[in-house]
Amino acid sequence: MAWEGPDIVSVVNSGGKGGDVPSTDQSRKRSYAIYTDQHGRAWGAIIENRTGDPCGPLEPQFHAPVQALDKFITVNSRQRKLIIRYADMILDIQQANADWDASLREYARKMYGMDAAKMIQNPTPELLDMVGPPPRGQKEIWEAAMQGNKWILGFSSAKPAWAEEFFPDKPAVQQAQEVVLTGKTYPDADEEVTEKYPKWSGPKTGWQLSGGTYVPRLEGEDKDAYKARAEALEE
Question: Of 8, 67, 177, 197, which residue is the least packed, with the fewest Cβ within 10 Å?
Answer without folding.
Answer: 177
